[in-house]
Amino acid sequence: MKRAIFPGSFDPITLGHYDIITRGLTLFDELVIAIGINAEKKYMFSVEERKQFIEEAFRDVPKIKVMTYEGLTVDFCKKINAQFILRGLRNPADFEFEKAIAHTNRKLSEIETVFLLTSSGKSYISSSIVRDVIRNGGDYTGLVPDTVRVKE
C-alpha cells in the first residue's frame, strides 16, 4: 500500500491545502493529514479545532486519516509506515524552502517527497493570510473549506 503524509500546522486548513489533498488522493492508497504540533508556536485554532475542520471536510473520504504528531516528520513517517511526504508548492520561494527540507529528509531516511503545484486559482492562499483576514474581521469564507468557521 502506498501511504503518504501531508504534514502541516493547518492553522487553519485552506482551499490551497484542500486542492493538494484532493489531487494527492489520486496518487496514494492512503493519505494521512498530519497536523504537526510545535509547543513553541502560538496557534489561532486549537489542535482539536484544526483536526475537526479537516475531519469534517473529508468525512466521506475513506482514504484519508487525520493524525497529530510532534517531532521530526520523518520519524512520524516511520512510525506509521508512510513511504511518501506530499507537499504543495505555491511559488518559487516555496520550492526553495521545500527542496531544502526534502533533501534533509532524504538524508535522514528513505522517505521520498512528492511535490504538487497548487492550482493557479488557489496559489495566493496561505494560512497566515487567512488568519490575518479573520483577525481583521474580513470575509475568509472564500479561502477555506466550509467546515472552517470562527466562533463569534
From TrEMBL:
GO MF entry, a single one: pantetheine-phosphate adenylyltransferase activity
All copies of domain Cytidyltransferase-like, residue ranges: 5-132
Keywords linked to the UniProt accession: ATP-binding, Coenzyme A biosynthesis, Cytoplasm, Magnesium, Nucleotide-binding, Nucleotidyltransferase, Transferase
Gene from which this protein is expressed: coaD
Subunit architecture: Homohexamer.
Entry-linked Pfam families: CTP_transf_like
Domain of life: Bacteria
Keyword Nucleotide-binding set for record: yes
Function: Reversibly transfers an adenylyl group from ATP to 4'-phosphopantetheine, yielding dephospho-CoA (dPCoA) and pyrophosphate.
Chain positions recorded as substrate binding sites: S9, K41, T73, R87
Protein's cellular compartments: Cytoplasm
Entry's EC annotation: 2.7.7.3
Site-annotated residues for Transition state stabilizer: H17
Protein name per UniProt: Phosphopantetheine adenylyltransferase
Phylogenetic classification of the source organism: Bacteria, Pseudomonadati, Bacteroidota, Flavobacteriia, Flavobacteriales
InterPro entries, per the entry: Cyt_trans-like, PPAT, Rossmann-like_a/b/a_fold
Entry GO CC: cytoplasm
Class of this enzyme: transferase
Pathway of action: Cofactor biosynthesis; coenzyme A biosynthesis; CoA from (R)-pantothenate: step 4/5
Binding annotation for ATP: S9, F10, H17, G88, L89, R90, E98, K122, S123, Y124, I125, S126, S127, S128
Protein family according to the UniProt entry: Belongs to the bacterial CoaD family.
Cofactor(s) for this UniProt protein: Mg(2+)
Signal peptide: none
Family matches, as Gene3D superfamilies: HUPs
Principal place of residence: cytoplasm
Record keyword Lyase present: no
GO biological process: coenzyme A biosynthetic process
